[in-house]
Specification:
This protein has 451 residues and is of the alpha/beta class. 32% of the residues lie in helices and 23% in strands. The protein contains 14 helices and 18 strands. The strands form five sheets. Strands 3-2-1-4-16-17-18 form a seven-stranded mixed β-sheet, with no helix packed on it. Strands 10-13-14-15 form a four-stranded parallel β-sheet. The protein is globular. It starts with a helix and ends with a strand. It binds zinc ion. The site of zinc ion has 6 residues, from loops.
């Protein structure tokens, strides 16, 4: 989701890395999702004293813990009475803080740096890929410093394969940023994405790769995989309108055959598909075809929810992005009757009650990067417990990303990706908007506790 209001207010009211010498670890990683950062050369153990350690799996806070880190990964987690710290060791003192796993955002757009979702056309018409990549470098730094140590970036919005370069630069240690899985261009059909609304004789850039027919759909997956995509992002629906009753109606982009071709081809390549969909046939085709996640899902009916539970399809809700400017635009469009935010609330509550798997995602880029932890407040405001909201951004998100063995919890064997905040996050979820310590792969990115 991005520029939505722009378009509809009018209508309805591993690859770049290939160019450079590649380390062996990067090559191997690209086949399974390019997680791993090259391990730090210094394998001397370091110790983190955690005054409180949030055990995300057990759902409780453990007092006085010691985390042993070696070579970027967690070697051991134990109580201070069980784990001695040898004299002269490297020690990080977080005894005044609550330590949690690094946060994971499953729906970002690093190539967008919008403030209120209203500058989409400017990005595509006026900014070079190079300038947008410079902005992306700043964006990922902000995200990391806010506590997001991993992100699934769901398409470049017209900046082609620039996300692959950002991911590779992070993986090579050239710039700071979260571990990324990137979708590259995104895929939709003719009439199913921006830029739209121009005269037929005017050629405009597109925010996605446009395909028509199963053959082109399958070819686009192969192309994007070839140039470094870690996942495929499709737009099952795009245009929408509000009925006088207040109900929202979305138009399907793909045929059932086209979606199935994309999902089948992605499966052959070992990568997942994320599907932007609100409701209707465009949503159904995605769930039926076996996508890994539905993005937004603002108007899930009982049948869709039932199928998502049965198939284990994740919902990545992105609640907060529909407030504010988009809510105003929707109210204007619906004659004051409704908005996607209001519709989404009811849908989210139903999905939550039915047990749909939920992974944290925000659409950061449609609003400023580094501020997306506000999504936790929206999730809890709409009925999710603070524990489940935190799980959605840790163990659930790691599962959706296919990185369960590497991230999502503070456990032996996983990367030493962790954050620290004041106070108890179960009592005050907004603490996650004020992260004071960030570590990624054993390297300290931010530590306000030493100031
Ligand atoms: Zn989006």
């Amino acid at each position: 989701m991005r520029r939505c209001c722009l378009i509809f207010s009018a209508a309805f009211l591993l690859a770049a890395i290939l160019a450079a010498p590649r380390a062996a670890w990067a090559q191997a990683a690209s086949l399974t999702g390019p997680t791993p950062v090259a391990p730090p050369p210094d394998s001397t153990p370091q110790y983190v004293r955690a005054g409180k350690l949030f055990d995300v799996r057990a759902g409780k806070v453990l007092p006085d813990q010691v985390i042993v880190i070696r070579g970027g990964r967690i070697e051991r987690v134990a109580s201070a009475s069980e784990q001695q710290i040898p004299p002269g060791s490297r020690v990080l003192d977080l005894s005044r803080a609550t330590v949690l796993p690094g946060l994971i955002d499953c729906h970002t757009h690093i190539m967008l740096a919008d403030t209120d979702n209203s500058h989409y056309e400017d990005y595509l018409l006026k900014d070079s890929y190079q300038f947008r990549t410079i902005l992306a470098v700043l964006n990922v730094k902000k995200d990391l410093e806010a506590g997001f140590t991993a992100m699934r970036d769901v398409e470049t919005e017209g900046a082609m394969y620039s996300d692959v370069d950002v991911r590779n630069a992070i993986n090579q240690g050239l710039i700071p940023g979260p571990r990324l899985k990137v979708a590259t261009r995104g895929i939709s059909t003719t009439g199913g994405y921006a830029l739209e609304g121009y005269a037929p004789q005017v050629t405009v850039p597109m925010g996605v790769e446009i395909v028509d027919g199963p053959y082109e759909a399958r070819k686009a997956v192969r192309e994007q995989f070839n140039y470094g995509a870690d996942l495929i992002k499709i737009y099952g629906t795009d245009r929408y309108r509000f009925l006088p009753s207040g109900k929202e109606v979305s138009i399907a982009n793909f045929s059932r055959e086209e979606v199935q071709a994309i999902v089948d081809e992605a499966r052959l390549k070992g990568i997942k598909v994320a599907c932007h969909a609100y409701d209707g046939p465009g949503l159904d085709y995605c769930i039926d075809a076996g996508v890994a996640s539905i993005e937004h899902g603002i108007q899930l009916d009982d049948d869709a929810i039932h199928k998502m539970v049965a198939k284990g399809t994740y919902l990545v809700p992105t609640l907060q992005v529909y407030c504010c400017a988009l809510e105003k635009a929707d109210l204007a469009m619906s004659g004051g009757k409704t908005s996607r935010l209001a519709i989404h609330k009811a849908s989210f509550e139903k999905a939550l009650a039915a047990g749909v798997k939920i992974a944290f995602g925000t659409d950061a880029g449609s609003f400023p990067h580094g501020t997306q932890a506000i999504e936790f407040e929206w999730m809890t405001r709409y009925g999710m417990s603070p524990l489940e909201a935190i799980r959605s951004a840790t163990i659930n998100a790691a599962d959706l990303m296919g990185w369960t063995d590497d991230i999502g919890a503070i456990e032996a064997g996983k990367y030493a990706d962790m954050i620290a905040v004041d106070g108890n996050v179960l009592d005050d979820i907004k603490q996650l908007e004020h992260v004071k310590f960030v570590m990624k792969g054993g390297e300290v990115v931010r530590n306000d506790y030493t100031k």
